Each structure stands twice: as C-alpha cells, then as structure tokens.
Amino acid sequence: MHSFHSNLHRPLPSSHQLHRRSERERSLVMNALLRSATGRLVNSVINLGLGGLRLAREFIKKRRQRREIRALLRLDDRALADMGIGRSEIEFAVRTGRGLGNEVRLRRDNTLRAVASECNGSERKVNPISPQLFRG
C-alpha cells in the first residue's frame, strides 16, 4: 500500500525524458529490424551464390559429357564393340556411366550358359548374378 501511495505522488516525466525514452525504444526496434533484414540479405546472397555454383558445375558436367560423346562418336564400330557399347548407346553410356544393354546382355548370356550346362549335366558355377541359377 505504501508503494501505491508513493507512485501517486511521483512527478510525471518531463517532455525531454519522454522524448529520450521514445528515441531509445525506437533505436532498439530499428536495430532489431536492421539485424533481421541483414540476416535475410546474407541468406539470399548465399543461396544465390550456391545456385550459381550449382549451375556452373552442371555446365561443366554437360560440356565434359558432350566432349566425351564426340570422342566416342569418332571411334569405329569395332572399337565401340570392344568397350561393350553400340553406337546408339553412346549418349546413354556417357550420361549414366554404363551401356544401355550391358546388364541385360550379361544376364542373358549367363542364363544361356546356365541352361546349356544343365543340359550337359555340368555342375560348375555359372552365374553369380542370378542366385536361382547358381550351382554350388
């Protein structure tokens, strides 16, 4: 009760004190807004830089792939066959790192060998890729 009565008798702040208090509060609000805006700007610049870096890497990758495709297209069909790719598979092989039909051909060839060995009664290990045809 005593503090209540003392607050009633406290003099009101002067206009100068009110002005200084409002300037201080405004300054705190402006600093908080400025920090927030600066943080957002920094994040935007970082994201822009990362996007540019990603684009540059993609451009370099595509340029390298085009150069490799051109080099493979200059080879004759026999050299391409030695590498296990056909002329029509060059672009796919360069972009994915493997030939279009290599896995299919490999499985088909091993399956044919396994069937042939079953017909001949052979008990050798034929196809480690396909466990159902694997004999041990």
Name the features:
136 residues, mainly alpha, 73% helix
Short overview:
With 136 residues, this protein is an all-alpha fold. It has helices spanning 2-8, 15-73, 77-83, 90-96, 102-120.
Q: Determine the fraction of residues in helical runs and give it as a percent range.
A: over 70%
The overall average pLDDT, rounded, is 78
* C-alpha end-to-end distance: 97 Å
Give the number of DSSP strands: 0
Report what the structure shows.
With 136 residues, this protein is mainly α. The protein has a domain at 101-136. Helices cover 73% and strands 0% of the residues. It has helices at residues 2-8, 15-73, 77-83, 90-96, 102-120. α2 packs antiparallel against α4. It is rod-shaped, with a radius of gyration of 38 Å.
Question: Could you give the topology of this structure?
Answer:
Elements: H1 2-8, H2 15-73, H3 77-83, H4 90-96, H5 102-120
